[in-house]
Amino acid sequence: MFTLWSLIEATLLCLNAVCILHEERFLSKFGWGASAQVQGFGEAPTVKSQVLNLVRSIRTVAKIPLIFFNIVAILFKIILG
Question: What is the dihedral of CA 18, 22, 23, 25, to 10 degrees?
Answer without folding.
Answer: -140
